[in-house]
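Entry 14. Ran structure prediction on the chain below.
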Amino acid sequence: MKTNRFGFGDFQYEVVPNWGISTELGIVSDVATDSNDNVYLAVRNTPHPENPGGYILVLDRDGNILDSWGQDLFETPHGIWISRKDEILLADSSDHTVRSYTTDGQLIFTIGTQGKTGIPGSPFNRPTRAALSNSGTLFVADGYGQDRIHKFTGKGEWIMSFGETGKGSGYINLPHDVTIGDDDQVYVLDRENRRCQVFDQDGNYIREFEGLRSPNDMVIDESGYFHVAEGWYQEIASICVMSPDGKILGRWGERGNRPGCFKGAPHGLWIDANGDIYVAEVAAEKAIHKFIRI
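Output, structure tokens:
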């Protein structure tokens, strides 16, 4: 019998049917929450890319709309990330920028030149995600146009870049996400090589976790477990859970039309302070899910 429960073992969830669904939703590329458990969706206009643009839609934890901002500013909102101090980082993969915002949409700074790529090897060429370390250092995955990770100060001043295209250890083929752990190591989802690679903050290779399937986004929970959104159009749709040492424990998620089932491709993922998971899908419209940890 089909239920509204998903997951396996110690990772069990119950979906909130139709959470956050409204007429204002287009394609939800990514999701993040702030310190008040308000939810921020990076939304693209539809159809995309024929109709470029997008905005940030802000919801409360029950899915009610609180605010929206950024209309007419973005080309392709791709990755959104929020710090513990509520600083928002948004990577726009079509206008080659990373912007920092307050939670009410006030611009703090912009990295990159809107509408222009950097010189090869330098920021940016279609960046996919940005994140801060606990010490305030900023890292950007420059994923679609070049296989680079860029390191900046917390104010957006460039420090260094690393990464070369390839398949071997330390080489990258489409860095779709970057996450900095509490261990200060840099976790890069190397999508086309189907793995997560781990570097120190100077770009030195440490280790890798293999066996992923089109990994798009990753969150490390409070216990050190890795939760990875895996998605590729109509072929792959799952959430992969790995132990703190990178061992794959299992996957959950299924396709279908009932609440909680995936229709497109899981592309963004976030875990809030309660342990609840939000999953955003591309390759489908109005596809945002909330799963409550049980």
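The chain has one domain: 5-293. Will compare against last week's run tomorrow.
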